[in-house]
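Q: Given only this backbone (473 positions), what sequence would you predict?
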């Protein structure tokens, strides 16, 4: 029997406090166990089953809020609230039912970490999940924030069979980060960019990627934005669909500031929007369809192979473009010290490489090998060579140099002196018959004598060529 003394009363109080505290801890464990249970794998990896139906904040409460133990797999059911900030290596977030998701709640929640932010985390895997940032899916709400689906800084992240909805950006690696996608990845209804890559970061898409948005109030839209030495490598196809903005047109792909784009031919490539490559950017696209214009400037380099372009091409400011078996439903303009090279692997009389005109401006050049074009305009101090191809006609202005080697002309050629043209047959191929070369101005232009042997008419001066050669007739 305890005596009712000061010592016994103190003992009684201590025992009561211990029971109260332990009872509270038991209650916390009970709440947590309803949403999580863990086990240890044979390889030392910890597996935790997360039931966000029972507790949507299961990944935000201690011990996981802002701290994830390395080499842990979270098997997720239901929609779990974010943002999740992950610095540990070997974390795996895997959806195990159809409703599995990581959700970035809307205002007033601070979105600075994105729905998932891998910061220095290596081998972070995000698989079979919906990343839902749709609460930040308009420019009015998202502008001025860092709301995103996935942010990566100095991290390596795998994204597998995942859909990302809303946010300023769907995927945004920066500062030496690497993101690798596998399986189908869908990036939907972003405000500014589906993929935004900068600061020597890399995205490699090893499965198909579908990028589309209906947002029109974000101020600008680059569906794929590659900048400051970033690299984007689509290996299994890409589809891009953009909305129509009021006042300006969104860009499907922008590559600039010494960045690089690679699109490979294994997979469906359907890019519904313009592509812009500038400021020492570079791009290689092998196969597919581009449903708008291609603009290249600022010393950039672009190579297209087996591509159909439903638009025109502009290369300027010392840029270079190479077209291999490319069909263009629009005009080509090469200007301000830029260069064009066109090649076609086989001759086909029914093929028309360029449905529009080819304009070569001052100090620029073009080479066409077995390629066809409607009309060619060569301005002062420019040059071009067409070998084994066809053209509907040409105008060669003062100081330009034009070479026709085994080419077939299906229209007149006008030469504004002093210019130089060279014509020769190659293996018996080449015809200027039934058409006229007009020498406009004085007769200082050089015409290969073989031309006169073909039987067509050469007029030294044609009255309708006199005057300003840049004025329309």
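A: Predicted residues:
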């Amino acid at each position: 029997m305890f005596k009712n003394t000061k010592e016994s009363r103190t003992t009684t109080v201590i025992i009561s406090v211990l029971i109260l505290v332990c009872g509270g801890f038991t209650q916390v464990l009970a709440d947590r166990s309803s949403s999580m249970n863990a086990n240890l794998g044979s390889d030392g990896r910890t597996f935790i089953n997360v039931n966000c139906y029972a507790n949507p904040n299961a990944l935000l409460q201690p011990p996981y809020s802002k701290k994830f133990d390395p080499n842990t797999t979270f098997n997720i059911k239901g929609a779990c609230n974010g943002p999740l900030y992950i610095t540990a290596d070997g974390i795996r977030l895997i959806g195990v039912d159809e409703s599995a998701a990581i959700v970035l709640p809307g205002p007033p929640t601070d979105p600075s970490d994105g729905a998932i932010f891998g910061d220095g985390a290596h081998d972070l895997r995000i698989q079979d999940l919906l990343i839902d940032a749709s609460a930040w899916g308009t420019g009015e709400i998202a502008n001025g924030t860092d709301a995103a689906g996935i942010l990566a800084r100095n991290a390596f992240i795998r994204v597998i069979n995942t859909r990302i909805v809303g946010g300023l950006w769907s995927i945004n690696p920066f500062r030496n980060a690497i993101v690798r996608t596998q399986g189908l990845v869908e990036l939907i209804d972003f405000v500014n960019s589906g993929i935004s890559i900068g600061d020597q970061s890399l995205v490699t898409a090893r499965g198909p990627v579908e990028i589309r948005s209906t947002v029109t109030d974000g101020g600008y839209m680059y569906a794929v934005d590659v900048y400051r030495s970033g690299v984007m490598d689509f290996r299994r196809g890409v589809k891009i669909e953009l909305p129509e903005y009021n006042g300006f047109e969104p860009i499907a792909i922008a590559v600039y500031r010494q960045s690089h784009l690679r699109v490979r031919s294994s997979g469906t490539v359907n890019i519904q929007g313009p592509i812009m490559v500038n400021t020492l950017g570079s791009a290689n696209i092998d196969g597919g369809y581009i449903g708008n214009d291609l603009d290249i400037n600022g010393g950039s380099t672009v190579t297209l192979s087996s591509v159909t372009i439903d638009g025109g091409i502009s290369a300027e400011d010392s840029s270079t473009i190479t077209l291999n078996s490319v069909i263009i439903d629009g005009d080509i303009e090469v200007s301000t010290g830029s260069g064009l090279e066109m090649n076609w692997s086989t001759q086909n009389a029914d093929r028309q490489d360029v449905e529009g005109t080819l304009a070569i401006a001052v100090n620029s050049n073009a080479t066409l090998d077995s390629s066809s074009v409607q009309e060619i305009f060569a301005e002062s101090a420019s040059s071009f060579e067409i070998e084994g191809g066809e053209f509907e006609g040409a105008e060669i202005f003062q100081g330009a140099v034009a070479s026709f080697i085994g080419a077939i002309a299906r229209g007149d050629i006008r030469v504004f002196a002093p210019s130089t043209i060279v014509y020769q047959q190659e293996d018996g191929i080449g015809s200027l018959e039934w058409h006229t070369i007009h020498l406009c101005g004085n007769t200082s232009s050089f015409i290969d004598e073989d031309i006169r042997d073909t039987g067509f008419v050469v007029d030294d001066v044609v009255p309708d060529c006199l005057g300003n050669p840049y004025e329309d007739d």
